Structures are given as C-alpha cells and as structure tokens.
Amino acid sequence: MNFMEKYLATLNAKLPGLADDLAEIGQEELETDSTRGLSSFRARGGPGLLVPQRHGGPGATALEAVHCVRALGALAPSLSVATTMHNFSVAALVAVEENFDGFEWMILDAIANDRLLISSAFAEGLSGQGFLTPTMTAQKKGTGWIVNGSKKPCSLSKSMDLMSASVTLMDGDERVGIGVIVIPATVDGITTKPFWDAPVLRGAESEEVILTDVEVPDELVMKPEESATVSLEALEAKGLIWFTLLISAAYVGMASALVERLLQTRKGSAERRVTAASELEAATLALERVATVVDGTDTAPESLPQALIARYAAQSAIRRSVETAVECLGGMQYIKNPMVSYLTSAVHALAFHPPSRMSVVEELEKSFMGQQMSIT
Fold it and tell me: Of all residues in the chain, what percent carry a pLDDT higher than 70?
C-alpha cells in the first residue's frame, strides 16, 4: 500500500468519483477557482458525508472522516478547509439533534438529499471561548428574533446554501440565553465583504459575512441551555473535538502532497524521505486514536485535551516534515513548481486556527494534573 492509498480508498468508498474529479482538475486550478472543486464536491454527495444514514447521508464515522479529509487536503487544499467548516457545522448539528426535538432532522435531510453547503459562523473555539460562544446577537421581536452581527473569516461565504451561527438571545436589555440558528443564505439582510487578503487558501471563500436585521422565526432557533439531557459544555466540547480532528487532517493532507512528491521523485536519501513521511503518519495515528474515542463513546469534555494534544503535535510534525521534504526536493522544484512553494506556505495556516496553542496551555496543564479542562 503506497503512502496515500488508505486515505484515498476511504474517500473513494464514501464519495465515489470525487478524488478522480479533483485529480483531473488539478491543484493549481482548484486553488484559483473555488467553484470547480465545490461543484464536484456537491455532485459526488460530499455535503452529506457526516449526515447519519437515517437522514440519507453515508454516515461517515470520525475515523473515516479523518481519512477522507486527509485525502482532500492532498488533492485540493482550499476545498479541504472550506468543507471542514461545512462538516464541522454538520457534526455540531448532529450533536444538537441528538438532544433536541425540533427542526434539526429536516436540515440534515436537506443537506444530504439536496446536497446543500452550510457555512459556520460559530466561534470555533476562540481564545477564552467555547465554539457556541456567540459572535452575533438576536433581539426578541414578537414571535421571532432579529439577528445582527458578523463572522470573519467565514468559509464558503460565496457558495453557502445555509448558514449556521450561535447567537446571544436578548429580550430588551436582558440576556435570556444562547441560541443556534440555521437559516437559508438567501434571506434578506445577509451580505458578504472581502476579508481574506492572503494569497494562499483563497479557494476556501473565507470572507466576512454580515447579518443586518435578519428575521428568524423562533422555531428556527435551538436553545442548548434548555436541554435536560446534555450540558452546554458537553455540546461545546463535541463541536471543538470534531473541528480539531478535521482541520488537523486537512493540513496533514496538504503536507502529504509534498511528501508524496518527494517519494515519487526519490530526491534526497531514503532516511530523510522516510523521516518526512513518518512525521505525518505519526500525526495521523494520534488523530485516528482520538477519532476512535469519538466513534466509541459519548464524547465528553474529558476527551478534548486528547484532541488538542493531537492537533498541536500534528502542527509540529507538519513543520518538520515539510521542512525536510522541501529541502530534499531542492531549489529548482521550489522555483519551478508553483504548488511546492504554495503548499509550503499553506500548511502554516493550521497554527492560526483557534484555539491557538498558547491560549490553552494553562488549561491543558490542568488536564495533565488530573483536573477537567475548561473551554469557556
């Protein structure tokens, strides 16, 4: 079995034809034209990857999702990041659906059967916050809510069919709770504004999304704090664990594209080639271990430190692997092959996804001392 065969096999099993489509389009075009990769992702059923089979999706496990996203990262870096945000939103919606009796099942059905893309306007674990910590407010008005605020960056800003967001629920001047909304991206009051100026990963469509006086009926607002079966902290932990697994796998995939090129060209020594590949395999083993915990248990906040440790270990492994691979490939590959320099730059963005390593070191230390890590 070659370096990427296992991960591509999982992607082909869950989303047949997608890998072939992306390979035919090519990385350079996928990175400059987001529509081609996203169109193929839709056509091959990608939006439903994490939707349970009872709702019409393939119901990929966390382990299968890690494999699929690593393969996507190697084939189409921006697509892997953009669809990670979609998959994270779906995973969060599934977690909410398991503990509520509302409209969530209809959304999941639509995502799988109508192949809808959903953007994430959750906090995604910003420093000092849980992923459900709102970046927007919803003011009570009659039987509904008026939502205002923005999310930047927000991936899939141009191609989203639905938008998910956490909101602070306000009744006059009084805060009455936290809500989770999922609304069509075409409703009045949703606009986008350029935000992403970096030359890499522009295909993820990570621009600013602004909500101005968006009307949301009460039946489209989930209220996690009212659940009698699951705590808000447990829901936040589930969401952040899924985000951590998937975003880490995406960047391991990007680094894998460089290492695979190194293995194919036979540049450098066998020892250095094996070292570069082994770094990424070890990082994946750590992510796989956390994924098996997610698949085998009702993921609790106690599993979050494991996920974050695996993510930060992956960051370090990616840096070492890419440094070795690029040095072995040599200056002419870096100069003449645009994707070598592109991927070398892109992989560093994993460190910028929240929560940053430094923002959680004290909480991680608590977990090493036998205390429960806090994410809020």
Answer: 92
Q: Give the model's confidence band at 234: pLDDT under 50 very low, under 70 low, under 90 confident, else very high.
A: confident
* Residue 251 to residues 77, 138, 222, 247, 322, Cα–Cα distance (Å): 8, 35, 32, 7, 11
**Proportion of the chain above pLDDT 90, given as a percent:** 73
Across the chain, which distance is largest between two alpha carbons, in Å?
70
Q: How far is CA 27 from CA 82, 294, 323, 336, in A?
A: 15, 31, 21, 15
In CATH terms, the fold of domain 232-368 is Butyryl-CoA Dehydrogenase, subunit A; domain 3 (1.20.140)
pLDDT for 76-104, tens place per residue? Answer: 999 999 999 999 889 888 877 776 666 77
Q: Pull the structure tokens for residue 173.
A: 């001047």
CA distance 130 to 216: 23
pTM, entire model: 0.94
Which range, of 122-126, 135-139, 149-153, 323-327, averages the lowest pLDDT?
A: 122-126
268: left (phi over 0), alpha (psi -120 to 50) or beta: left
* Domain boundary assignment for the chain: 5-113, 118-226, 232-368
Q: Residue holding tokens 């923005």?
A: 150
Residue range 5-113, CATH number: 1.10.540
Query: How many residues are given for the chain?
Result: 376
Among residues 39, 130, 204, 98, which one has the least CA distance to residue 376? 130
Residue 213 has a pLDDT of 97
| Rounded CA separation 151/285 (Å) | 33
Q: Look at strands 136-141 and 162-171 and give their pairing.
A: parallel
Say if residues 149 and 211 touch (Cβ distance below 8 Å): yes
CA–CA dist 376, 370 (Å, integer): 18
Q: At the topology level of CATH, where does 118-226 sit? A: Butyryl-CoA Dehydrogenase, subunit A; domain 2 (2.40.110)
Give one DSSP letter per residue of 251-307, joined into a string: HHHHHHHHHHHHHHHT-S-HHHHHHHHHHHHHHHHHHHHHHHHHHHS---GGGHHHH
SS3 16: coil
CA 325 centroid distance within chain: 26
